[in-house]
Design goal:
The complex is a heterodimer. By secondary structure, chain A is of the alpha/beta class. Chain A has 24 helices and 8 strands. In chain B, about 50% of the residues are buried. By secondary structure, chain B is of the alpha/beta class. In chain B, helix 8 packs parallel to helix 9 and helix 10 packs across helix 11. Chain B contains 12 helices and 10 strands. Chain B has 2 domains: about 90 residues, Up-down Bundle (Four Helix Bundle (Hemerythrin (Met), subunit A)), CATH 1.20.120; about 200 residues, P-loop containing nucleotide triphosphate hydrolases (Rossmann fold), CATH 3.40.50.300. An 8-stranded mixed β-sheet of chain B has the order 5-4-6-3-7-8-9-10, sandwiched between helices. In chain B, strands 1-2 form a two-stranded antiparallel sheet. The chains are: A alpha/beta, B alpha/beta. The complex binds guanosine-5'-triphosphate (2 copies) and magnesium ion (2 copies). One magnesium ion (MG) binds next to helix 6 of chain A.
Chain lengths: ~500, ~300
């Protein structure tokens, strides 16, 4: 995957610094890296050029050159500048007293119809009465697609299978919305190319005749250099009020967000993070800036974690933990909790410093690994789950392995992993979410969580409290070991 | 050694030293190949969506060979075009037809890239050739995906095999191929649900469809086409890598090339993953499919004003 800008810059500028003071020309090499990162993230070239001009002025300024850590300073300026450019946020739909009309438009396949459903879902949750309007009379089965979504959500869908003119259809739909006590009508228009003058004129006509309260452009996060062209054309034809960026659940860096914001000037309102109708989130420029720079989306993760971890369940487990009652059953539940967050690799990619780990895991399928673990636990008796390290002997091990379809040594590994996990849980209990993240991160860096097949490596506890000096010495040893490993890896061509 | 030879030798050395060419001294027009020139070239390349790596590689090569010489930008671009055309060239017959029995084509790609429409176009092309086509609607996930392909099948007069919403896509694919065998059809084209390449479980599902098909007929699927939206930027590389890992893609269909996007990421894909572009999509209608040709494609990459 992508190395983070921070890492790249650090090594580049460190090399430069070794040769003396950081100078203006040295800094230019750093700036080149920034430009590269932006282009790799698919920010459009003209936008990158503008950005670099502004950045150069600031970076060459005395403050950065003299800063104690120019790398950090530079990354900070880049990040801040990105945040400024993509903000300010405005998540409001600006609904009016009576029927508001919201229109979605965009290129073919960008996600308009799905986003219609998502907006409907979110409005419904807020106690509104939305109606979906099937104004795409072009694509085969577009109307049915919206109807299915409406059915899933229990929302009315205005459709007319024999209609030929989308303008007339939208007018009729708004009349119907008014008559039926709907709060918001959401128009799903057909996908079109920004250079298709006939269809763009048709869109302007709908805009003029209906006068929607809000017009949003739906943009695919994977869009490359062309983002500026299409966004500009749609904005000129319609005067957009906002942008929704879809398909951010993948590994696209989403530089198009910056391009689109730069050419239209309208706020990015929401992001789509999945095909399901609840996968719509508010847009946050700081997270997007981190994503574009490959810096890890830690805030999003924290928020997701807070939403999805079942707080009560966690507290119950923590209480048991403190009493020393943490069993394999609890372990299994914890695995289940972690799973709710999404694929493990994705979660780890969102934590700064753990991106590398998720890369190392690469092909290893952490999710199927997890299923194996659960399978092993399921094959145990309650007694074995309560007290695995004491009870499970060789013959039991064989039986469990056969039941779960794994090798006996894998059962052994699980038991050891459980010990580490219990230890980790003990240490983490009582910490807030943020501190937990940090603890996990420290554990990873210390090598206690080994990437690869096994989620965790056995770590033999010393059983006694260490003095601060002893701890510091151990840390040093660990770090040395890590450096050595890295060196070897490099030597072996990774 | 005569005086003249000595002179020539000296000249050669100087030439090496300055990396310049005596001919350049007499050129009235043209530009010095310097940092500014190379930056400008880099920008031309990056605009195509080929990506920083591919662009930098070309710029470095040009810089090495021409630095300090006087050239016309147009000549340099011309040379780059020739190389890209050679890189992207493909054999005249992009689809390998099965020696006997139906040729099975599996179509995959990320959400909304144009899979279903491209299948309609392929079916149309083969029907025009007098071939009999069976379509397999193995996108059992997306709302009205089956209806969409069914409408196309109706318009094109192709037979279609479907399954209920949410059912196992591999079994739909299997039944479609069985139907093609049964009716002695020439081709069976299998649609799949859009999925992002990072979704491991969905990618495994795709692998399963592939596996089921190859069990059914050993050589099948004879082609696995990855549909790529021409507006896609650098993520296209990740798409090509992961889909190829999952289902051994044999080539690309570059859809939506009728817009202003240039689709240059296929250059990086060709270099890094090796996948050739086989067809291009140039509209929403069944006949809007064309054989990929490197020549006009590369010319369009560098066309100004679009
Ligand atoms: N992974 C992911 N898929 C999405 C997201 N939003 C939409 N999709 C998928 O993208 C594909 C296209 O979505 P549609 O809603 O049909 O797109 P559209 O813009 O209405 O397409 P046209 O009407 O043909 O122009 C579908 O497979 C959707 O399920 C998202 O945020 N994440
Ligand atoms: N302009 C243009 N539009 C195209 C082209 N190919 C497909 N489309 C449009 O792009 C949109 C999405 O196409 P689909 O064929 O439904 O895409 P898909 O990949 O099957 O989508 P999912 O199944 O939802 O993942 C539709 O509106 C198509 O009409 C093309 O070559 N040019
Ligand atoms: Mg639609
Ligand atoms: Mg489809």
């Amino acid at each position: 995957m992508f190395e983070s800008l921070q890492e790249n810059l650090s090594s580049a500028l460190k090399a430069l610094r070794g040769r003396g003071r950081l100078t203006e020309s040295n800094m230019r090499d750093g700036l080149r890296l920034v430009q590269r990162a932006l282009l790799e993230a698919d920010v459009s070239l003209p936008v990158v050029k503008d950005f670099m001009t502004r950045l150069t002025e600031q970076a060459i300024g005395a403050a950065v050159l003299k800063a104690l850590d120019p790398t950090k300073q530079l990354v900070y300026i880049v990040y801040q500048e990105l945040v400024n450019l993509m903000g300010p946020v405005d998540h409001s739909l600006h609904l009016r007293g009576e029927v508001s009309v919201l229109m979605l438009c965009g290129l073919q396949g960008s996600g308009k119809t799905t986003t219609c459903g998502k907006l409907g879902h979110s409005l419904l949750q807020r106690g509104k009465k939305p109606m979906l309007v099937a104004a795409d009379l072009q694509r085969p089965a577009a109307i049915q697609q919206l109807q299915v979504l409406g059915q899933q959500l229990g929302l009315p869908v205005y459709a007319d299978l024999s209609a030929k003119d989308p303008v007339a259809l939208c007018q009729a739909a708004v009349r119907e919305a008014k008559a039926s006590g709907t709060d918001i009508a959401i128009l799903d228009t057909a996908g079109r190319l920004h250079i298709d003058t006939e269809l763009m004129d048709q869109l302007s006509l709908i805009d003029r005749r209906i006068g929607p309260d809000q017009v949003y452009l739906v943009v695919d996060a994977m869009t490359g250099q062309d983002a500026v062209n299409s966004a500009k054309a749609f904005n000129e034809a319609l005067e957009l009020d906002g942008v929704i960026m879809t398909k951010l659940d993948g590994d696209a860096r989403g530089g198009a967000a910056l391009s689109v914001k730069a050419v239209t000037g309208v706020p990015i309102k929401f992001i789509g993070t999945g095909e399901h109708l609840d996968a719509l989130e508010e847009f946050h420029p700081d997270r997007m800036a981190g994503r574009i720079l490959g810096m890890g989306d830690v805030l999003t993760l924290v928020e997701q974690a807070q939403q999805k971890f079942d707080r009560e369940e966690m507290e119950k487990q923590e209480a048991r933990l403190r009493k020393g009652e943490f069993t394999l059953d609890d372990f299994k539940k914890t695995l289940g909790q972690a799973k709710k967050l999404g694929p493990l690799n994705k979660i780890m990619g969102m934590i700064p410093g753990m991106g590398a780990l998720s890369d190392m895991m690469g092909d290893v399928d952490a999710d199927s690994e997890m299923r194996h673990l659960v399978g092993v636990i399921d094959s145990m008796t309650p007694e074995e789950r309560r007290n695995p390290s004491k009870v499970i002997d060789q013959s039991r091990r064989r039986r469990i392995a056969a039941g779960a379809g794994v090798e006996p040594h894998q059962v052994n590994e699980l038991v050891k992993q459980f010990d580490v996990m219990a230890d980790m849980m003990k240490r983490m209990s009582g910490l807030g979410m943020r501190d937990k993240m940090r603890a996990v991160q420290e554990l990873t860096q210390s090598g206690a969580l080994s990437p690869g097949g096994k989620l965790m490596r056995q770590k033999v506890g010393t059983g006694k409290r260490l003095t601060p000096q002893e701890r510091a010495r151990q840390k040093k040893l660990r770090e040395r070991e890590q450096r050595r490993k890295k060196r070897d890896q490099r030597r072996n061509g990774r | 050694m005569g005086l003249f030879d000595k002179f020539k030798q000296g000249l050669a050395k100087t030439k090496q030293l300055l990396n310049t060419d005596i001919r350049d001294l007499f050129r009235a027009e043209g530009r010095l190949v310097d940092a500014g020139f190379l930056d400008e070239l880099f920008e031309k390349l990056v605009r195509t969506d080929m990506g920083v790596d591919a662009a930098q590689e070309i710029v470095d090569d040009i810089g090495e060979r021409f630095r300090a010489r006087v050239v016309e930008m147009i000549e340099i671009v011309e040379e780059i075009k020739q190389k890209l055309k050679a890189l992207l060239a493909q054999p005249a017959e992009p689809i390998h037809l099965a020696a006997s029995g139906p040729t099975v084509i599996m179509v995959a790609g990320v959400n909304g890239c144009g899979k279903t429409t491209s299948i309609a176009k392929l079916a149309n092309m083969f029907s025009d050739d007098g071939k009999k086509v069976v379509l397999g609607a193995a996108d059992t996930f997306r709302a009205a995906a089956v209806e969409q392909l069914t409408i196309w099948a109706g318009r094109l007069g192709a037979e279609i095999v479907t399954g209920p919403q949410g059912s196992d896509p591999a079994s739909v694919a299997h039944r479609a191929v069985a139907r093609a065998v049964e009716t002695a059809a020439d081709l069976c084209i299998v649609d799949t649900a859009g999925r992002l390449q990072t979704q491991q479980n969905l990618m495994q599902q795709l692998t399963k469809i592939h596996r089921v098909l190859s069990k059914q007929i050993p050589e099948s699927p004879h082609e696995v086409l990855l549909v790529l939206d021409a507006t896609t930027g650098q993520n296209g590389i990740s798409q090509a890598k992961h889909f190829t890992d999952a289902v051994r893609c044999t080539g690309l269909v570059l859809a939506k090339l009728d817009g202003t996007a240039k689709g240059g990421v296929v250059v990086a894909i060709r270099k890094q993953v090796g996948l050739p572009v086989k067809y291009i999509g140039v509209g929403e209608k069944a006949e809007d499919l064309a054989l990929f040709e490197a020549e006009p494609f590369v010319e369009a990459l560098f066309a100004e004003g679009s």
